[in-house]
Amino acid sequence: xxxxxxxxxxxxxxxxxxxxxxxxxxxxxxxxxxxxxxxxxxxxxxxxxxxxxxxxxxxxxxxxxxxxxxxxxxxxxxxxxxxxxxxxxxxxxxxxxxxxxxxxxxxxxxxxxxxxxxxxxxxxxxxxxxxxxxxxxxxxxxxxxxxxxxxxxxxxxxxxxxxxxxxxxxxxxxxxxxxxxxxxxxxxxxxxxxxxxxxxxxxxxxxxxxxxxxxxxxxxxxxxxxxxxxxxxxxxxxxxxxxxxxxxxxxxxxxxxxxxxxxxxxxxxxxxxxxxxxxxxxxxxxxxxxx
Length: 291
Ligand SMILES: Nc1ncnc2c1ncn2[C@@H]1O[C@H](COP(=O)(O)OP(=O)(O)O)[C@@H](O)[C@H]1O
Ligand SMILES: [Mg+2]
Hints:
By secondary structure, the chain is of the alpha+beta class.
């Protein structure tokens, strides 16, 4: 089958033969214009033997340049699956390989949750401050877990966080590990030149290896997006916008400014510290609640 036509997959060949109902992931689901039509294509299906829902990510062309980022995602997810075997916050890698035409593929868990970007209100809603803080605190937890393995996401943004509230408890999934930095591999010379998202990826990533503070920056940008309701203003420098945001009270503005500081040395030193600052603020404005 030709790789020119992204729909042209051979359902009788691996890996598609192991899954039924294979179809493209509906574009509406991603909550944004996906870059996927350029770099990869996404299919969903259900296992024939093991009835799990899977997402199949296939590079759009064969070749090293296209494979590199997907290889990185596969290696990082496998380390996370090994290091955090009980965590339900990350996709599980079922299998990976190459199609006959040379394209690289990854089969992983498909989650029901939708991207946080689909939840961003178009109008800022001060009444939802608590809801948004609870989301940011919930997102911090799996980040802290993966940082414990020496892995940093680096491209955290509202499209790469899936989120749902079930019986008042947040469900968080972190996806898209193509830009991730794994100290155990990249700290020892593995090539690293990740795709990033303007406004959400920490600025220093362009010139130095990232650490936990890169994800502190991105989580701060995500929280400010939730608070302002504007998904794409993030393309401009965020710190001056937070500083000028009069809808924030002083305490929350300081917590956020310390997250999105352009200089990583001025940020919260870890996601855990940032989380503590958000929890302290939330406890003050909403004391004693069971969040
Ligand atoms: N495991 C998954 N479960 C559910 N939805 C997913 C999953 N992985 C990706 N998606 C959806 O597909 C979109 C694009 O996938 P992603 O891995 O982020 O690639 P890219 O951003 O490079 O196109 C995501 O924003 C999300 O909406
Ligand atoms: Mg993505």
